[in-house]
Amino acid sequence: MITIYGIKNCDTVKKSLKWFEAKGLDHKFHDFRVDGIDAKTIEGWLGDVGGKILINKRGPSYRNLSDSDKAVLENDGGAAAAILAANPTVIKRPVVDFGATRTVAYNETRWSELAGI
Fold it and tell me: Which PROSITE patterns does its entry note (predicted)?
């Protein structure tokens, strides 16, 4: 089962969900705000894709973080996962989990490859 992580009012997440529905791919949506997200899951994502890809430094959520939290996020360590778990809107969206592989951001071409369509 494909899991799409994000927040329901994000335009990119909405667009992603529509794409998966249009392709008839079995998926579920995990809303960071409603369902939460744990640091262990985020640690795995950081290990898979790294902080440069996972962390959205362009949004207001990142700008509102303390300077010390921003400094921790620069180091990609375990403490970064805890900060992201407490502030999940700093995570780029969507994170799409195909089981063995995860993608970050909207990417129809990559999703098609991973889904075998």
Answer: ARSC
Distances (CA, A) of 83 to 53, 67, 109: 16, 12, 31
Closest listed residue to residue 91, CA positions, set 68, 67, 78, 73? 73
How big is the chain by its Cα radius of gyration, in Å? 14
Express each pLDDT in 66-84 by its tens digit: 999 999 998 766 799 999 9
Per annotation, catalytic residue among 3, 4, 5, 10: 10
If you write DSSP's letter for every residue of 20-56 in order, what string do you get? HHHTT--EEEEEHHHH---HHHHHHHHHHH-HHHHB-
pTM across the whole model: 0.93
10 a catalytic residue? yes
pLDDT value, residue 76: 61
The alpha carbon of residue 103 and the mean position of all alpha carbons in its chain are separated, in whole angstroms, by: 8
Right CATH for 2-115 from 3.40.830.10, 1.20.272.10, 3.20.20.70, 3.40.30.10? 3.40.30.10
